[in-house]
UniProtKB/TrEMBL annotation:
Source species: Candidatus Magasanikbacteria bacterium CG_4_9_14_0_2_um_filter_42_11
Record-linked InterPro entries: DUF2188
A family per Pfam: DUF2188
Name recorded for this polypeptide: DUF2188 domain-containing protein
Length: 85
């Protein structure tokens, strides 16, 4: 039986494309995601997360934590990426 190599489809969402490229380049990112207690700021590779009551507060905190090479990914309530900064 011949093996078939599956290649991932190219994402159509511009934010998702930016995220995919950043991951392929090995960049670490900071994600602002909806949490059961509010909005969480998660850094890739870290277990700890900061919790905020509003998305705006969480995004402001994430932008302050941003360093060279890091990208901030802001997710919506549905979990999809809304913005990449």
């Amino acid at each position: 039986m011949k093996k078939r190599i599956l290649t991932p489809k190219k994402p159509h969402n511009a934010s998702l494309q930016a995220y995919t490229k950043a991951v392929q380049r090995g960049r670490k990112g900071i994600h602002v995601v909806k949490n059961e207690n509010g909005w969480a700021v998660k850094k890739i590779g870290n277990v700890q997360q900061a919790i905020f009551s509003t998305q705006k507060e969480a995004e402001t905190h994430a932008l302050r934590q941003k360093k060279n090479g890091n990208t901030v990914y802001v997710h919506g309530r549905d979990g999809r990426i809304k913005r990449v900064t």
